[in-house]
Amino acid sequence: MNSITIAQTREEMALAFEVHRNAAICAVRLLRSRMVRRLLDRVAKGPVVLGFAMRARSVDAPKGRLRMEVDFRMTGEMEARSAEREPRKKETVVSLECTYAVDYQLRKGFEPSPRHVKAFKDGNVIFNCWPYFREYLQESVQRMGFPPVTAPFLRVQPKLPKAAKGRTSRSVSRFSNRLAARPGDGPYGAGEKPAGLPAGKRGRSPHGP
Fold this sequence. Notes:
Strand order of the largest sheet: 2-5-4-3-7
Radius of gyration: 19 Å
Order of helices and strands: EHEEEEHEE
Shape: elongated
Structural class: alpha+beta
């Protein structure tokens, strides 16, 4: 199963857990979204390979609450060439961006420090909003005429020691990063199958217009 990994130090995870113990989600709202599908006059070559990016930030909130905004982005690229046999080129055929606002009610007397907030937003907050994004992504992509897409699982785990970093699969450890994907090398790590949208002739889905 493909997955995206958020890596944090043990200190960051301890700080985030302290907030987690003293906070409860009280609202999750979609603030804005944008989705684009491109109709290509080119011959499709291979699947549409997906890439994901995400980031969270703290915003002003009423006393006793912690409010975050979380940005998600998905892009789908494929190789295509024109009927005149021009060289293949990568095309972005589908993209979706959305922002969620999530409110946490803080336990009375608990006031998180800036370090608490940073650790919590960089891990737990994105993890908490990921299911909402997955659902919205699947529904929106279908509306654009593609088959259903299931976004990969999202995991939060401790950072590995520096000596082991060179042996890890490609993953998201900072949330501005985009997962690169190349044909034959899965978008979430070597040897894994890419999460893709099957493409029909001329860049169109066999299940849509």
